[in-house]
Amino acid sequence: MSQTDVIYLDSWALPDFELERQGWGIPPRESWQVDRKFRQIHAARKSSTLFKRFNRHYLAISRHRGRRELPEQVIDLAFVEAEAREVRDFKARLWLLAACLLTIPVAFTGLMPVAPLWMLPPVLIAVALVAVALRLRKHHYEFRALNSDVVVFTVDAGVPAKEDAEAFVRDLSLSIADAQRVLPAGKQRIPVAVAEMRRLAEQGIISKDDYEAIKRNWFRS
């Protein structure tokens, strides 16, 4: 591939359409009007997440890990896929292994007399596996960057309650669909989308590699 075959999308613009277009980007904080709040607290993990939707089309995410406050993430919902992807992983293999271990004492007791002390190890291992399965299980909703499979943020599906989380996800999907109505049509959407993805990468919300992958997707679309 020659140098002339390479297109640097960061510096590419359509006629009369600048990459950093006025009217796009995150509004100044003093103009924020918060219209929806949703907090998720994980006591076992000693963590909490506060979602604040403001000006209908933006989302600020504040997270705490123990006493440490993580950097706030601010996302323009116009550049997020409206349909959230539900992810379920209840670690079924760990549960199955724990169940098998619990049947060992029962099986040996039925076949021959076994001292209770010999039945203790498999039971303890099974209990430990159940604890690990409960800790590692996942059930959440993933919101991906527009025109990509890159996850921008997630919402836990069961905190504080399943119904509350589902209602919040529905509200976000409606806000996203509403925000995308004002996006430029066709190829004019590419520069503003690339600019927003670059901002997310610069702020550490997505990785540099994810940004490059998203940029390629937009160029191919």
Automatic annotation (TrEMBL):
Q: Which domain of life is it from?
A: Bacteria
- Transmembrane ranges? 94-112, 118-136
Organism listed in the record: Marinobacter profundi
UniProt-recorded name of the protein: SHOCT domain-containing protein
User: Keywords on this record?
Assistant: Membrane, Transmembrane, Transmembrane helix
